[in-house]
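Dear Dr. H.,

I hope your travels went smoothly. While you were away I took the liberty of generating a structure for the chain from your last submission, since the lab meeting agenda had it listed for discussion. I wanted you to have the full record in hand beforehand rather than looking at slides cold. The sequence, exactly as received, is reproduced here:
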Amino acid sequence: MGGLSFAGRAGLALAAAFVFSAPALAVNPTQERYEACLAQVGENPEAGYEEGLAWRAQGGGWPAQHCAALGLIAMGETELGARRMLTNAEFAVTASDATRAIMYGQAGDAFLMASLPDRALTAFQRGRDFAPLDAGLALGAADAAQAAGRWDVVEDAASAAIELNAGEARAWRHRSEARLEAGDLDAAEADMEEARRLDPDDIEALLLRGRINEARRGAAPIE
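The corresponding predicted structure, in token form, is as follows:
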């Protein structure tokens, strides 16, 4: 999912692990160049971007374009990089489903960094078409929906993230806030308390508790 998507959070090289299906004993030059390009992005984003462009001009296809898009994002060109990542994910029909999901997730994170939550939500949701059991993509969708004020989507996405990984405090906090917005204070409080149990140092969950308490006071009948 901040950071570079559900792949980026685990490191840029994760994407390469899912890509090619060459026999284990065979040397795959494309795989090697792809991994080298991703590593270069991590060390020197501009050089990695230039390598991706050069490789693309040589017929590198979607792996080259993926590397170039990551380079743009790492250089701070988050909107442009996100758009190129999204296009690449859509047309990388020879890539594995897991790799395409990673690219959609990276596009989603980049759109969030560019303050474009609606586009981020679209990217995360599309990624879930390829990796429906990935908790990071569901959580990314909840992040984006919250930033966009799409509270019904926040609850659905956060619930999916919780079902896939109940140990993620942020998912409980997101769902708590969505339920607070819907006026379901008891459910909001229960989710908030679970978020605080999982991450006692989460300041946002503590602030959320204050908002829930304030909502209860506002809802109390006047004697």
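Two observations you may find useful: The first helix runs from residue 5 to 8. Residues 83 and 107 are 7 Å apart (CA to CA).

With kind regards,
E. W.
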